[in-house]
Amino acid sequence: MSVRIIPRLDIKGPNLVKGVHLEGLRVLGKPERFARHYYEQGADELFYMDAVASLYGRNSLLDIIERTAREIFIPLTVGGGLRTSEDINQVLRAGADKAALNTAAIARPELISEAARRFGSSTIVVSIEAMKKPDGSYEAFTDFGRQSTGMDAIVWAKRAEELGAGELLVISIDREGTGEGYDLELTRRISRAVSIPVIALGGAGNVDHVLQVIEEGAADAVSLASVLHYNFIKCAECLEDDYSAEGNLTFLRREGKGFGKIADATLPELKRHLLAHGVDCRWEGGWAA
Description:
By secondary structure, the protein is an alpha/beta fold. The protein has a single domain (about 5-275), classed as Alpha-Beta Barrel (TIM Barrel), CATH 3.20.20. The protein is built from twelve helices and twelve strands. A hairpin with a 4-residue loop joins strand 8 and strand 9. Helix 1 (about 30-40) runs parallel beside helix 3, helix 7 (about 155-165) runs parallel beside helix 8 (about 185-195) and helix 9 (about 205-215) packs across helix 12. Residues about 20-25 have low confidence and may be disordered.
């Protein structure tokens, strides 16, 4: 099967935000504009995460989901603050195609089975936020990487599959937002432990990192943010409206410090790189570079 490339958009209120290790969130702009841009560039799917849902116990993205679904016709996965089957039903009715569960699934694992029976396994994504421990094992976290669970991430991945999850989103808290590359060991260990698709997230700093997590990490799909977001921010400078007014971009541009180790790229550039190295991915040559 073709490897899917999935831009991830972390959302706080009406804004797209980005942090490091899932912390220090900074506003980049309006998520709908980024989503539309990625759709036009050939994204296979999109992932929306309510970055502060755990603080309020609810997902607040319904309006954004509805606006996005009217213009974008690729699968949209939504996560953050989904505690019950009815919460999942609401985001699906708003226009999402899949729902991502983490905190509520660990607190009550049977929610995975309930949701899979009601909406179908292909609709249910279990998100695993993992951090490497000194002994080399990985622990699963909840609440956007804030809460320790004491649960082994690989054991939890296998349990989530048994309960009916259709795919897993594997997030390395250690690497997220750093640009240092994906945690290949984490992704590989979970990919080998389950038979459902594994989506790798956290650490992409350039197109080679994406290639690595596919070839060495055995990822079935790849999600990334900074590499794509920073490219769009630079592209947006030439738009007619004042894009800078939408986000706190001074930090990102200050002596290059905000961009850190990120070598930005467009989706077509990324997919051409993968194809050149023998990775099968959906490609239409007409996409704008």
